[in-house]
Amino acid sequence: MKTIHISADREYDVKVDVDFTVQLSDLARDRTRVAIVFSESMKARIPTFDSGDTEYFYLPIPDGEAGKSASVLVHAWNWLGAAGFTRTDLIVGIGGGAVTDFAGYLAASWLRGIDWVAIPTTIAGMVDAAVGGKTGINSDYGKNLIGAFHSPISVLIDPVWLETLSDRDFAAGLAEVVKCGFIRDQRILDLMHAKTLHDIRSSREVTLELIERSVAVKALVVSGDFKESFDREILNYGHTFGHAVELLSKYSLRHGECVSIGMAYIAYLSERLGIISSDIRALHIETLSGLGLPISYKGAEWPELLAAMKVDKKSRGNTLRFVVITEVGKTQRLENPIESELYAAYERLCQ
Ligand SMILES: NC(=O)c1ccc[n+]([C@@H]2O[C@H](COP(=O)([O-])OP(=O)(O)OC[C@H]3O[C@@H](n4cnc5c(N)ncnc54)[C@H](O)[C@@H]3O)[C@@H](O)[C@H]2O)c1
Question: Does the structure show a pLDDT above 90 at 207?
Fold first, then answer.
C-alpha cells in the first residue's frame, strides 16, 4: 500500500493498492450509520457490509451524469432523513467520478457537511475526480454548476476495480495521467514511453505506479491551493480546447479523449509559438497515440470551437487563457495568443 497525504480543508490520505472492504470496515467501526452510494449498473459488485453495531444503508443512483442531478439529490436527502442520518454518520461513494462527485456533494450538503469516503472505481476517478475535494452535481444549464469544496476523510484505491474497465475507459483515464506527466512528473512519461495500452494494462506494477504518481501530482497542487487559482489551474492543461471539443461533441466523446485532443492542440500551438521544441510536441503525439487516444480532430468548425473556448471557465472576461508548458514539469499561462496562430494549430490538428 502507498499512502499520499493531502492537506486542504482537512488532512486526509489517499491509499493506493488497498482492499477497500477491509479499509472501509475500519473507517466505519465507530459510526452508527453508513450510507453506501453507488450507480445502479454496479449493483452486483457492491458487497454487503456487516460489522459490529454499524448499520449499513445502500443507495443506488442512475449511472453516469444522470445520477448527478438535482432530482436524485432531493431523493437522497429524503432517504438520509428517513434513515435518521446524523452529524456523526458516514457517506461512502463507490463508483466513477460521477458517483464520487454526487456522494461528496450529498455529504457536503447534509447537516452542513458530514464525513464521507471516496472509493473510485475508474482511472479517471482514482487520479482526478475523487482527489481534491471538489464535489457537485449538474444543473439544466451545464455540468458541475452546483457544488462545494468538501474533502473526503479518506480515498481508497483498490486495483480490483480496474479489471472490468473497458479499454476505452482505461485509455480515457490515462489521458489525465499523461497530463500529470507533462505538467509535473517526467517519470510518468518515462514509464509510458513506447508503451501501448495493452503493455500498461497488463502490468499491475506500472499501472499502480502511474496512478500513485498522478495522485501525488494532484495532491501537491490541491494541497498548495485548495480553491481554484493558477496553481490548481495547471491541472487544466489541455482542457481549454478539450472542454470546447467535449461541449460540441455533446458529450459523445469521453472526457479523457477530449483532453487528449486538447493536449495535442496545445502542443501544436506551443510549438508554433516557439514555447516548446518539436521534440516535446512529438512526445505528446507519440505518448497519446501509443495509448490509442485521439490526437486529431474532425468535428466542429473553427468559429464554433473558438466561441466555446471563450466561455470556458479559465477565460476571464474577454481573455482567452491556456495553460502551457515550456518544458516537461514547467507550466505557465498563455493569454490571448494571436488568432491566426490559434487557427493554424487547429488546421494542423485536423490534418
Ligand atoms: N471532482 C472533480 O475534481 C472531478 C474531476 C474530474 C472529473 N469529475 C467528474 O467525474 C465524472 C467522470 O468520471 P468517470 O470518467 O469516472 O465517469 P463515470 O463516473 O460516468 O463512469 C463511467 C462509466 O464507467 C462505469 N464504471 C465505473 N467503474 C467501473 C468499473 N470498475 N468497471 C466497469 N465499469 C465501471 C460507470 O458505471 C459508468 O457507466 C464527471 O461527472 C466529471 O464531471 C470530477
Answer: yes
Find the 96 Cα to ligand 1 centroid distance in Å. 3
Q: Whose CA is nearest to atom 24 of ligand 1?
A: 96
How many A from CA of 72 to the centre of ligand 1? 17
Whether residue 251 is found in the same domain as residue 270: yes
Q: Are residues 126 and 225 in the same domain?
A: no
Choosing from 45, 101, 151, 225 the residue with most ligand 1 atoms within 8 A of its CB, the one to mutate for a pocket test is 101
Q: Which domain holds residue 49?
A: 2-163
Residue 179 in contact with ligand 1 by CB distance below 6 A = no
Tell me the three cell numbers of residue 313: 471557465
% pLDDT > 70, the chain: 97
Cβ partners under 8 Å of residue 168, min gap 6 = 254
98 vs 85, 122, 331, 340, CA distance in Å? 22, 10, 28, 37
Number of independent structural domains in the chain: 2
End-of-domain residue from the set 163, 187, 202 = 163
pLDDT in tens, 99-154: 999 999 999 999 999 999 999 999 999 999 999 999 999 998 888 899 999 999 99
Our answer on whether the CB atom of 157 is closer than 6 Å to any ligand 1 atom is no
Q: Report the distance separating Cα 158 and Cα 228, nearest Å.
A: 28
How many Å lie between the centroid of ligand 1 and the Cα of residue 142?
Answer: 17
In this prediction, residue 227 carries a pLDDT of 66
Q: Report the percentage of the chain scoring pLDDT > 90.
A: 89
Grid cell locating 237 = 492543461
Question: Residue 345's pLDDT is what?
Answer: 98
Same domain assignment for residues 63 and 186: no
Whether residues 150 and 175 share a domain: the answer is no
Residues 153 and 208 in one domain: no
Domain boundary among 103, 132, 163: 163
